[in-house]
Amino acid sequence: xxxxxxxxxxxxxxxxxxxxxxxxxxxxxxxxxxxxxxxxxxxxxxxxxxxxxxxxxxxxxxxxxxxxxxxxxxxxxxxxxxxxxxxxxxxxxxxxxxxxxxxxxxxxxxxxxxxxxxxxxxxxxxxxxxxxxxxxxxxxxxxxxxxxxxxxxxxxxxxxxxxxxxxxxxxxxxxxxxxxxxxxxxxxxxxxxxxxxxxxxxxxxxxxxxxxxxxxxxxxxxxxxxxxxxxxxxxxxxxxxxxxxxxxxxxxxxxxxxxxxxxxxxxxxxxxxxxxxxxxxxxxxxxxxxxxxxxxxxxxxxxxxxxxxxxxxxxxxxxxxxxxxxxxxxxxxxxxxxxxxxxxxxxxxxxxxxxxxxxxxxxxxxxxxxxxxxxxxxxxxxxxxxxxxxxxxxxxxxxxxxxxxxxxxxxxxxxxxxxxxxxxxxxxxxxxxxxxxxxxxxxxxxxxxxxxxxxxxxxxxxxxxxxxxxxxxxxxxxxxxxxxxxxxxxxxxxxxxxxxxxxxxxxxxxxxxxxxxxxxxxxxxxxxxxxxxxxxxxxxxxxxx
Length: 545
Prior knowledge:
The longest helix has 33 residues, at 192-224. A hairpin with a 3-residue loop joins strand 1 (152-156) and strand 2. By secondary structure, the chain is an alpha/beta fold. Helix content is 47%, strand content 15%. The chain is built from 17 helices and 14 strands.
């Protein structure tokens, strides 16, 4: 598939022509299956014919594409080798000969079979046409024969065809007229010839419907005999559509062809998240990152601030591997993908309270599934394992998980482990295949700038309070959190002393409250004008200073 996508990628002109040829291409597989099941309607057959008529053009474009691709292996890759893309000219000719250009929605409605397809059907239709023409001429002929100027020929489903004469002209009715129905102001008659023509028309309609249905069933059977070829064409077109879509995406967004091998190395240079980079605000650029996982360096402990891009990095690595293994180009400068059997992810926070499972319980269930089923060929992305419980419990679980992944002979798989537990960085000194990485942070005075670059080494802090300030927490909460963090990091085992939000009133040496406050309490505010109130406030302000 990568070779096929590459061939489409290299020729923008041929790719555009093929995409135009495929635009609006009918669902040939669905239509063919309807034929095989015997439920296809006439318009479905025209859809099959339209698809096959375009298949020849598509096949020619594919041949030119391969010739211009400069990829020797492209000519032997399905369907670029021309296999499956069969125009099935016999089917097109059969449908064209059998079905009218604008058929009814259902065969039961009649009129779907083209003239010339069945001599028997044509003969019936000719006889019906002659009978209807005779009936159409009857009214004028009878008026001239009888002299009854207002004589009419009509038809209804109950009495069939009839001749209607008003009672005022009753004496002029010929002897060969047979009374059929009496109305208030007129009489209705039939003649033996009219009755014969009516029988011919009505019987012919029933016979035509039966014959058309039989001919149509036989036609479906004839087309169904080509089902294998039609389905092969449908599959080939579907494959080609996938190649063109992936190639168009690669060309539009700067993807490259990955190298896929059966080794244990996963090396991505300049990798990007395929979705996040598309959703950035106008003018913003996605920061690419590298990753290198091998048998000797299989576990990366990734630390760094909140909002710095750790989770994005984990997901983009997994998505690049997934894209490569479905045969797509990838958003990177280069990629060496050692095949993985499965991608396991433990990311995000969710609960299943209806099932009695808390957020932490769901996390542990997912982690248990990963540890019990992953293999040495798996890729694991683990984000914040151990959150949702006490700090010591969380660190202990996260530490033990990393040890298990590193030491168990069934595992030892490629793992990206993002965490805020800085204590886990010590594992790099204890386990030979563990490496520390962090998201770099730039400081400009008191301002923190997240660079989103993954660099070697462990982070010294998470900058969670800074992120809380960015989120809009009250300034007092942020300042108090910084004070508490300083106390906790000082090593003092005592808990921080709680602080009241409102400071207590200042006490004066001789007791009581400030005179200005006492005077303010005694003011008769309701009797003061606005200017008097402003002047008094200014006076009290000056006195308090």
